[in-house]
Amino acid sequence: MGFLTDSAPVIAIVISLISLAFAAYTATWLLRQETGNERMNRIARAIQRGAQAFLSREYRYVAVLVAIVVVVLLLLSAIPNSGMSPLTVVAFISGAAASALAGYIGMSIAVRANVRTTQAATKSLNQGLRVAFASGTVMGTMVVGLALLGISILFLVFTSVLEGDASAAASA
Q1: What are residue 37's phi and psi, to 5 degrees?
Q2: Tell me: the pLDDT tens digits for 7-24?
Q3: Residue 29 CB neighbours (<10 A)
């Protein structure tokens, strides 16, 4: 194999870490923007409390669904020649955790960006749009960065585990 194919997972991990650092930088910039007057901040706090309550309830329901799917995947992986593996459960849980993290951070940034976007828009449309787009950038970059990081790590781990199994089976 060539350098690029051998290094692809490591390159992907580096790129994903760069994207997550960019999301953190953008979130930091966003949170440094002005939040407006007391009335705007009072409304913003109420929205933040509502968003937290929504996420808390949503994640409780999603956790139950994830647990059910994990049990089903484990049962399927116990069936010989089903094509399923316990590693599928690892990948599923990793994806669910990354999705939950991206959703939590995205919601947190989005509700905090609302008041900052409103305040920036009182100065100019351009400033308001810059803050609003920064909010979306954080969420989008988090989703892609976490997905790429998770897939790359799983690829490295699974290929090392499966190569070990293949070599053990070949020697038997």
Answers
A1: -85, 180
A2: 888 999 999 999 999 999
A3: 14
